[in-house]
Amino acid sequence: MAQRTVPQPLNLRERYSSFVSASSGGPITAVLLVAFFGAWALVAATGGDFMTIDNIRSMLIRSVALGIVAIGQTLVILAGSLDLSVAYLVSVTAVLSSVIMDGDPSRIAVGVVVVLAVGALVGLVNGLVITKLRVNAFIATLGMALILKGLLTASFDNFSGAVPEEYQVLGYGRIGPFPWAVLLLAALGGVVWYMLNRTRYGHHLFAVGGDFDTARLSGVRADWVIIRAHIFCSLTAVMTGLFIVSRLRAGAPWVGPDGAYDLQSIAAVVLGGTALAGGRGGVGGTIAGVFLLAILDNIFNQLGVNTFLKDVLRGVVLIAAIAIYAVQRKRAGR
């Protein structure tokens, strides 16, 4: 009687190394450089100012909100999931923190801690519904988004509360020429890069996103990896909300959906070369994708492009980028 061959779990280190090497050669850096210098030439040809300190600083600050939440989105997508609830969580954070602070400097810490706890809870629920109830991530996080939207709509219809002047340093403060918010984005990107490339959790995240069953057979607590990724993603949405409210000085229920941080963050992750199927990509590419979107917005604004045409052009760029990555991977036999 022939013996049945039982597939052996792959070594996690080998699997992790293969995922990293497969995602390290993406063209996003080259595309970003071409876009930057192309934008410089185009705007200069039309008489605008692109390569100025104020314009560069403005692009960097405009990248912070999307950049922070896109870093969190990178983690859940690497794990083979996604999160569509981040936009409304941004709004919940902005409104709730503003109402709690109510212009009182002594209540800053309370406001920040409460919204961080709310964000962690939302991420935990998302992760549990996806992993324990086996609900598709798209449906689970869309459902959470609708719940948050309903709570916001029922409770608020305009600007609410106020953040104290001392808190606004997050949105407007600088260390020399460097805005606090940009340094925060850089620090967060560095921490997540280290986590993905130098920690066991990073190895497990790539493994789970690459092959859930193989990772589980190799001893990885795959469900817990996904849950942690969703908690972190929700916390980055909270950080984005805290940044936005420091700029607006008060919270409003529409700031998250108006910024389209759900779809925009996914677009930035995909532009950065991270595979939507999971297991391949990185935070460096995501940040480059965020900056690419910021450059495009800056060009559109300086050239006075119609708002609806902006969305069309963003969509064309996104589809073109995905097509380029797909062709490259096909040629590489991945």
What characteristics describe this protein?
single chain; 334 residues; mainly alpha; ABC transporter involved in vitamin B12 uptake, BtuC; 15 helices; 2 strands; 73% helix; globular
How would you describe this structure to a colleague?
The protein is an all-alpha fold and 334 residues long. It has a single domain (27-32, 48-325), classed as ABC transporter involved in vitamin B12 uptake, BtuC, CATH 1.10.3470. The chain is 73% helix and 1% strand. The protein has a two-stranded antiparallel ribbon with strand order 1-2. α3 (53-78) packs parallel to α8, α3 packs across α14 and α4 (86-101) runs antiparallel to α5 (108-131). It is globular and about 55 Å long. The two termini are 37 Å apart. Mean pLDDT is 87; it is low at 1-10 and 14-25.
How many beta-strand segments? 2
| Low-pLDDT segments, ≥5 res | 1-10, 14-25
Give the C-level CATH assignment.
Mainly Alpha
Q: Approximately how much beta-strand content do the residues carry? A: under 5%
What radius of gyration results from the CA coordinates? 21 Å
Give the helix level as a range of percent. Answer: over 70%
How does the SSE layout of this entry go?
Blueprint: H1 12-23, H2 28-45, H3 53-78, H4 86-101, H5 108-131, H6 137-155, H7 169-172, E1 174-175, E2 178-179, H8 180-198, H9 200-210, H10 212-217, H11 222-248, H12 255-259, H13 261-271, H14 283-303, H15 307-332
Antiparallel strand pairs: 1-2
Helix pairs in contact: 1-9, 2-14, 3-8, 3-11, 3-13, 3-14, 4-5, 4-6, 4-11, 5-6, 5-11, 8-9, 9-11, 13-14
